[in-house]
Prior knowledge:
Elements: H1 6-29, H2 42-63, H3 75-95, H4 97-109, H5 117-138
Helix pairs in contact: 1-2, 3-4, 4-5
Amino acid sequence: xxxxxxxxxxxxxxxxxxxxxxxxxxxxxxxxxxxxxxxxxxxxxxxxxxxxxxxxxxxxxxxxxxxxxxxxxxxxxxxxxxxxxxxxxxxxxxxxxxxxxxxxxxxxxxxxxxxxxxxxxxxxxxxxxxxxxxxxxxxxxxxxxxxxxx
Length: 150
């Protein structure tokens, strides 16, 4: 028999407990409102549910995995994904939604290294169309599509 991965089991149980507590507390003590008009308890409840689900996804696989079968984290991929999100947050307010999505997609495509520049640009065009349809048409969010700071 093998030794269980107790670190991930403990981490998953902690996430489960914190998620259940925050979701339960916000449902009992705060006004949730509706999805159309959210109250102050809606966001903490949703975050608590997400933490609960994350705890399940961490703890359950650890029950069936030996401790020496640890997953490896690709540091290069993590840096490019975080860099893509950071670059999007910096480009969006200055240049607008379309350049922000293009920068996000191109920088994020370097995380895998298998996507060519042409494929990344085609993907960014598709994501620009989807983002424009979702944010501008479906959600009616007022965001600049293109802007030039000078």
